Amino acid sequence: MPYKRRMRTENPALHFVLGSLPLIALVAVLPLAFGGEFALAEAMRQHKNAHDLLREIAFFFTDWGNPAFYLTFLGILVHGVRTKNENLTKFALTYAACQLAICLCLVNLTKMALGRPRPLTGETVYHLLTLDPHFHSLPSGHTADATGSALALALWRRNMGLTISLGVLLALMGFTRIYLLQHYPSDVFFGWAYGAVSAWAIFTFGLKKDTPAHE
């Protein structure tokens, strides 16, 4: 029985789902609760303008959430190099490669190609093939980046408490992007999708499948 329980908790698909669930629930519930994405954006606009402290907290989290993940993976890389742990070094380098290719390059190319206006602009018409950042709403780059980082860590460690905590942090990142009128919930969802692909690629190519979780 202990062995079976351990195998269940180390199932990567389970941690992938649990790490994603808070964010997916958030982007599904918010538009329903407020009567659509545009009504939600207006409600967020009014609340944000009336609550200076919450707005500043949201800005702090959205600005520093991803750098905190970068430092975490930098620490993993440094530790791997210093201890000559090839598994850790490969994991960190694969993370960097996948995040740069998917969550930076591919996400930004999609943003420029689609040209969806951000909620803060008040516009609804797409501007295809644009370099104007005001029309780079879809998908959410912050969410993609955070998803790739959070799910990669969850898939590496496969610890239930950590996975749930990372899922909550990911949902908070998505919420701040909506609250600050940078993205609609659908933008955040597609940001998650890009990041999820990156995280699974990191897991597939950056971790040995014959080693225990969190080694």
From TrEMBL:
UniProt KW Transmembrane keyword: yes
A Pfam family: PAP2
SMART domains: acidPPc
Entry EC no(s): 3.6.1.27
Gene3D superfamilies the UniProt entry points to: Phosphatidic acid phosphatase type 2/haloperoxidase
Keywords from the UniProt entry: Hydrolase, Membrane, Transmembrane, Transmembrane helix
Annotated signal sequence range: none
Any one Gene Ontology molecular-function term assigned to this protein's record: undecaprenyl-diphosphatase activity
The UniProt record lists the keyword Membrane: yes
Residue intervals passing through the bilayer: 12-36, 57-79, 91-109, 162-182, 188-207
Start and end residues of each Phosphatidic acid phosphatase type 2/haloperoxidase domain: 92-203
UniProt-listed InterPro entries: PAP2/HPO, PAP2/HPO_sf
Name this protein carries in UniProt: Undecaprenyl-diphosphatase
